[in-house]
Amino acid sequence: MGLTVWLLIVGAVLFVKVIVERSRRRAPASTLHETPAKAARWIEERFHAVPLPAQLWSFQDRIAAILVTELVDGMTKISNSYWSSTDDHGRPYNVGQDVLTATGLAIVEIGRVGVAGGARLCDDPHDTLILLAEAIRRSGNDLKTLTPDPDGFGIATIRPIADKIEALAGGRAPSPLDGPSASVSVAEILDRQERALYAARAVLPGLHVEFAQDVVGNAIDITLRTVGMLRRLLAPEIAGVATLASAPPGERLAMAACRIAGGGMVEGERALFDTLFALFPSPDTFDADAIHSESLYNTSLLIARLPQDLGAVDRKTMDGLWASCLDALGNSLYRAFRAGEQLAAKVLCPLEIFVALASDQYDDDGEMLLRAYACLLALRDGLVFDAPEAVTRHIAKLDRETSYLEYFLVLDQIARLRDEDQVANYYRVAFTGGDGASLSIIKCLSDKNENDREIADFRGHLTGMNEVEARSVGIMPVIKLTIFNEPGGDIDFERLKAHRVAGSLLLGLGRSPLTARGRIVLRTIGDIGRVPFEALPYGDHEALGDHVAIHYSIAPVILGEGDRSSAWPRSALILGGCDFDADAPEGTAMVFADRPALFEPLPGTKAEAIAIAQRFSLAATLGATAAEVERAVVDRPQLLHFATHSFFIDRQRHLAEGLHMLGTSTVSPRRTGEIDGAIVLDGVNGHIDSVAWLNVSGVIGADQIRGWDLGNTALVTLSACESGLSVIEIEGGGQGLREAFLHAGARCVVSSLWSVGDSGVALFMDRFYAGLCEGLSVSAALQAARLQSIEDVGRDRLAFIVLGDDILWERETS
Amino acid sequence: MTIRIETRVTSVGKLEALLRGAVGPSVELARENASGERGIDASVLVALVGASGTALGVLLSGLLKIREQAKAGQIVLVGSSGRRIEVPVDTSPEMIKELVKRAQQLDVATILLDR
Fold this sequence. Notes:
The structure holds two protein chains of two kinds.
Chain A: H1 2-23, H2 36-49, H3 60-78, E1 84-86, E2 92-94, H4 95-115, H5 118-121, H6 125-139, H7 143-146, H8 155-168, H9 185-189, H10 191-203, H11 209-226, H12 231-241, H13 249-263, H14 270-279, H15 294-310, H16 315-339, H17 342-358, H18 365-381, H19 383-386, H20 388-397, H21 405-416, H22 420-424, H23 448-462, E3 468-473, E4 476-481, H24 491-510, E5 519-522, E6 537-538, E7 542-543, H25 544-547, E8 549-552, H26 556-559, E9 565-567, E10 572-576, E11 591-592, E12 595-596, H27 603-615, E13 621-622, H28 626-633, E14 639-643, E15 646-648, H29 651-656, E16 677-680, E17 699-701, H30 702-706, E18 715-719, E19 728-730, E20 733-734, H31 737-743, E21 748-752, H32 758-773, H33 778-788, E22 800-804, E23 808-810
Parallel strand pairs in A: 5-8, 9-23, 10-13, 10-14, 14-18, 18-21
Antiparallel strand pairs in A: 1-2, 3-4, 6-7, 11-12, 15-16, 16-17, 19-20, 21-22
Chain B: E1 2-7, H1 12-23, E2 28-32, E3 44-48, H2 54-66, E4 74-79, E5 84-87, H3 96-106, E6 108-114
Parallel strand pairs in B: 1-6
Antiparallel strand pairs in B: 1-3, 2-3, 4-5, 4-6
Helix pairs in contact in B: 1-2, 2-3
């Protein structure tokens, strides 16, 4: 304790000294940095407030390292008179200001990408990095408005930051299991102390005082180097240290994890483990009453097993494994710190240790995390302790193409365990895959006793198929379903297989009594996205979608589900009753089968638009040209409803399969401006002067929509044919209408997977909006509408799916 | 006799509505392959006419009457052998009888409305 206080005092004195020194040279009042201290605060605030896009979580350390390098450089310069001079107006000036301002701008840009749709722009972390780098480069244009930058230090800071971030896209994502020797620049800059800080933040409230002192001491070291950046972080820990002296023995394990994570493993630190093992000589003598949670108990058991397991490998391997698992611990705690989840930290740490021991190679984060997940499952299953080789065998079977996303799901699931009420009403099914090849399903239930038997039966059923692996984890039954896709495999066959297996799985879920009050969240990548899960048989005449609210997520950040509420729509474009034969501006019509694609009148759409508009006391728009729609969206309506024709040309598939679409030879690789799918509007039938696919009048295509600003739009409903189909141009990404609307900023898109009948859909949509207006979420309102529409709408009730946030409209109480 | 009326200028729905107004009940019109869906529709308008040529005359008159509204620059009769006859833009009511005669000779199977 004394050491802590002493170090703090020293730190504070040094800090004040630096500030006073710098305050003597005042920067121009017009800049952001009236004083160096203010500049530091400005940056500090932004650094901590920056919401890193979810895709970049795996790059967090490296990006932080790049930024901290510049921050340290700026602060070094600003405290050194060598870099001080006067500006053009004769005022005191230091180039460190420019460096700091440039770094701050870069941080702001990271925040912008994170907040303003980074998660929606692309799933791929590497693409997101490139996007971010471009944004940072562009921000250099703003630099001159913030700081004079007479010597060009600011711009010379911005560019390397962007270059370094872009360079990250060139390599693989850093694995939490990268050993300490890996060339991660963050290790060079922040070294162990940074990790110690994160670790401390995650577990300090439950730590022993002596250890806490050590961690805090490390953190103070960083404090001196990064000027007050950590003061705010440390304050609560320091306050909590005094209460830790009586921490129970179980907590000491977490302490050990923290210590190792913070310091990195060195030879002498193993003694700490030995000490801890001595506390718990065997699982049998472990006093479960003395610990705070079951997860900690498992932690203890696992750690107690480590020496035994290590005995089976050679020294060199063992060293590597130790180093890896220690680094993994640090990353786990770091993430846990970020997520504010101490429980997650305590659960994940031992898992990753075990994973590090059980596996000797890690291709990428996704694989490692999946392995960790598998270990979690196996551990909770009781598979691990008595048969470690069985776990290894399980791990060997895991799909290597699993993406990062599953990890976040894991964290999210664990986090949710803290709120049992929430979990009790929640089903979660997540599908992820690389190359559209793998399909994973995670189901979350609450009452393990109630569901254990069912899950065991279900698991037995599933494991009868060689594509499927299923396990249950305590209160979190988890099922992983992998569909192996061979390169060049028959896509239809894969789809059928996916459908069959997913059908079995979902039907299994459907047997649970929780289904009726549950919700399924699906994440699909690749061709799996076209599988109409809503249409899976459920009983003799009904479908899964009739009984379960199903919602498709576009990114794990959405799976995390923040605020789902949305303000009651006061502005809307509710379009129906278009006149497709109306006179229209000159343009080019579309041609199908060597004749013009003429769109038939849709009387049902007019009635539909009017009925929906009345529910919101708004006016329906009965017919509009493409130009009129473009003008209407400039006002950023909260609701967009298109009851009209739409179409989707699966150009890619027709090409791949060597087919001529509808008997014509007009299918060619997509060119810029060419349309794959579009919403059809007034005047589309007007012109047939050419047989091209370019610049079609009377329609709005995905490319146009992508350029709209729909940041204020909560819901887009595409009450039209095939509006939910899209071309998979990049792994994990679609280029159809629904993706375009989400890209433009809309929170949620309801679209159809096949051609739907005019009159039935009008009826269905009216029921759907009735549910929304009664306070149901979009997925729940769709489910309720389906159930009402079994008889009179038929199969088209199952065509509509919801992608994006599963929003709820809040009616104003006044 | 069944004659397909193919349109490349306006929707089948609109053409049907216009033609019904122009020919009344004397020509039976029907839509084939109408999906009623909110997407690309492959429906075709079909006219049922008798062998006497009266109904065919009414149909051709009706098509000429709605030509402008339907934005049809050309009306082409296509025979079962593939032979084609374009209906002159300035076909007067008096010339319809001659046109029917030629259509019968042609064994017209399709009437094409084009730009």
